[in-house]
Design a protein that fits this description.
With 280 residues, the protein is an alpha+beta fold. The protein is built from eight helices and 13 strands. The protein starts with 21 loop residues before the first helix and ends in a 5-residue tail after the last strand.
């Protein structure tokens, strides 16, 4: 199947008995949306369910085709392909029937691909949220069920991933928090977030006018955790230059990735991260 840049990738059928695009095998079925089963319920579901490793050779091309073709096709009730092509950044990144069935954001999270995760998270959210009461519709243009349990559940699941997520025996804090949320004077607070290691609390306060961000962390204690990993994505791609933990200099950090690796066995942690000049 061709991509927008002229390269080709192998297709990824959603059903064994239809080794190609499902819409071509069953045109017009399910009220004219048989094509969507390759997207919302397609082979990419094997990644978050653990059948395929997130970094398997098949996964990158699958995501590329979904982004280039599936997410920019005509939608159900809304999102004409011609409009999608003209505004591909804001209208792309999510599927065009029921985007919270599609788990591409989760896969970007598993691959630690920050910017595609955030684009898919916010674009899908905006396509279905009811601005009057802040619940989620089932389909575009307020079609189908309102206050939909499934859509609300996956919004909460993605939001949890944005704020806190487990990776093996590591617990990552603020892994996908947008850099704008860490502008000078802003605060991100997470209270009693459930994890497989127990609940975790943290608050991140930005004082970038003084070149620093401060994080206060209450570690989980219910089950052993190998380490905590804190990501501080300061605006402007500013690299980490110096870190102290509970007043003691701390060397286990990645300046460019803005990652700080911490022992979870200290209880309460006060992390002061200092930043260098950002990109111009």
């Amino acid at each position: 199947m061709p991509l927008r840049d002229g390269t080709w990738v192998a297709y990824y059928p959603s059903q064994v008995h239809s080794p190609g695009q499902l819409g071509a095998f069953f045109p017009g079925e399910d009220a004219g949306r048989s094509w969507c089963y390759d997207v919302e319920l397609g082979a990419h579901q094997m990644v978050p369910t653990g059948v395929l490793d997130p970094f398997d050779d098949a996964v990158g091309p699958m995501l590329d085709h979904m982004e280039d073709v599936q997410f920019l096709a005509d939608g159900w009730f809304d999102y004409a392909a011609s409009d999608n092509a003209r505004d591909w950044f804001n209208r792309g990144g999510f599927s065009k029937v029921q985007p919270f069935y599609t788990r591409n954001a989760e896969i970007y999270g598993q691959r630690d691909d920050v910017r595609p995760f955030l684009r898919s998270y916010f674009n899908a959210l905006a396509s279905l949220v009811n601005p009057e009461v802040l619940t989620f519709w089932e389909h575009f243009r307020h079609s189908g069920a309102w206050d939909k349990t499934h859509e609300t559940g996956y919004f909460l699941h993605q939001t949890r991933t944005l704020l806190v997520t487990e990776r093996g025996l590591e617990l990552w804090l603020a892994p996908f928090v947008p850099s704008a949320w860490l502008a000078d004077g802003r605060t991100v607070t997470v209270t009693r977030a459930p994890t497989r290691f127990g609940t975790v609390d943290f608050q991140i306060t930005s004082a970038l006018a003084s070149g620093r961000i401060v994080a206060e962390i209450k570690s989980p204690t219910a089950r052993p955790c190998l380490r905590l990993v804190l990501r501080l994505r300061a605006p402007g791609e500013r690299p980490l230059s110096r870190v102290t933990v509970n007043g003691v200099p701390h060397e286990d950090f990645d300046p460019q990735a803005r990652l700080i690796r911490l022992s979870p066995n200290v209880g309460r942690l006060r992390v002061v991260a200092e930043f260098g000049a950002g990109a111009r």
